[in-house]
Design a protein that fits this description.
3 strands
Amino acid sequence: MTTHITGHRRTWLRGQDGAVSVELVLAVPALMLLLLLVVQFAVWAHATQVADTAAAQALATARTDGGSADAGQDRAAQVLRLLGNRVLIDPQIRVTGDTTQASVEIRGTALTVVPFLPMPVRARAAGSVEVFTPGG
């Protein structure tokens, strides 16, 4: 069975030549940008988890009996080196403490997938210092 396109219909179809190409030229970059934004968010979430883990480990080290801010700083740097040296860019670690409190703050930037969208990462942890008191 053969179908014939009438002259009027053939003219209408001829006017649509290239419409799909134009739509693809507009849609594909938008879809690629959307995909890159999803990947950028996933990288940022991973970098945040790495920073949170490093802050928690540094706090645990700094607040133990006999621990120090320097020991916490070293522990945070070690964790970041092991887990996030590619995903967390230029991390800055600040560990402070005294005889009763310790706190850790880690700042950096997530690896950039979308060039115009730097995403800052910040993690904090704080707690009281453990002190051994003899039972009695």
